[in-house]
Amino acid sequence: MARKPQLLMIFVVVGLFAAGAALLAGTRPVDGDEGYYAGAARLTASGLVPYGDFFYPQTPVLPYVYAPFSGPGGGSLVGLRMVSVAAAALGLLLLGSFLRRMYGSQSWLPVAGVLLVALDPHFLSWNVTVKTYALANLGVFGVLWALGRGWQTRSVRWFAGAGVMAGLVVGVRLLYAVWAGALVLAVAVTYLVRERPRRPGAVTGLIGGLVLGTAPVWGLLLRDPDRFMFNNLRYHVLRYSPHDAPGAGPLDQGLDALAVFAGTVATHPYLLVWLLLAGWGWREVRRGGEGSGPHAWWAAGFLAYTGTCLLPDPVYPQYFTAAWGPLLVPLAVRGLAALLAPTRRRLRPWLVAGAVVVVLAGLSGFELGVRRTGMDTAEVWSLDHQAKVAAAIERLTRPGDVVLAFWSGYPFISGRGYLEGMENHFALGISEQLTLEQKIHYHVVGKELLMEAFTRQAPAAVVLGGWMHEINTRLDQDHIPVLLEELQRRYEIRELLGEVKVMTPRREPEPES
Prior knowledge:
- This protein is mainly α.
- It has helices spanning about 5-25, 35-45, 60-65, 75-100, 110-120, 120-125, 135-155, 155-170, 175-195, 200-215, 215-225, 225-240, 250-265, 270-285, 295-310, 320, 325-340, 350-370, 385-395, 410-415, 435-440, 445-455, 470-475, 480-490; strands spanning about 400-405, 415-420, 460-465, 490-495, 500-505.
- Strand 4 and strand 5 (about 500-505) form a beta hairpin.
- Helix 8 (about 155-170) packs parallel to helix 10.
């Protein structure tokens, strides 16, 4: 395949991916986390600052990227999802550029490598959501592309560019901090230990770029260290854990994390494909004596990221399924080339590759269409149901009104204001572990503030349902009947949509029982 047709094929693959991803974005059930990410984008667009003005338990870059598309009035999750689709498609183009430079003599490999990622059902499912994955994976592809250019040209500027993009990835999701550090260490081993002459400029360029790329993180850390540390670290220690029960300890947590990891790999065939190809690719790298180059960098980054993902409590499968493809694709393509090399004498490579694509496409179709990987198919998370809830809120309230919803996506899609402290539905889950002063300081609602809001009838509407985990499991169970009694005295149900109730203030509160 000549280079121009090869480039055309990459554009065709990326175009088809973008079209399919856009279709999926318009139909995929909503992930619960999308509510608070979308809300954070709208709040940031209005001039508020994460941590200082509202609770946001991630590093701060995502709200600023999505903010221009969040809409001043009623927001659209599907509209914001298109930003994620664009980020994923751009990432695939960067991957294609990297592979074209690495495997120009094997012209079918760049197309196959892009297809490997484009057909990954987990990449598709998670990269169309309003979550951290699309931006983080775009940054990972950007680092891959820039490090590849740096390796080939020995130019410090490419390493600096890779550092900037790695810093932005950390600015989207702190879970990648160890990954970024592993890349720096691996590059340092290559250029300061193994290669002669030594090239310290590559290392200093990468570190300098990393510091520059994390500037948004440093800025908010220095502006308000206490709130920054609470949102990014202390909250994650305080949040719900299945190991909070008496007698549970670090050993139980570690064993459960390994069980989740093993179960995720064993039950997701596409992850096994990635591991098989990447493992074979690493075998070829070692046999070729290339253990200190880019493939070694990416192996170190993958291992560092995967190890880091075992530390949160609890561990979720999406930590692995959403991220492994971009992290493993360089080694996987190397493995694919080695596995298919013997067939080149007997069969055309594109014919064999075509058969592989058919198998992977079938696997992807099964995962997305039948198994619905990464999706909650309950009615309450369908886009149609959420549109009905938003329409009910809009009928019963006026623009500018405050709505108290236990899933923070409802105020976003209806264009209504948030009750302070409820901008993020996860906040309530740690409220019992904070004093009243801390709740106010960190913008976390609690039972006292909920009671005050009900008594004053401050919200123009209260929306029950959708996401009630925090109040059902983490709030003081003795206080819940008191809250419910006050809510029923002050509010009445106006709309009942499945499990979701939309309530508005009574004209005359019911007498106390």
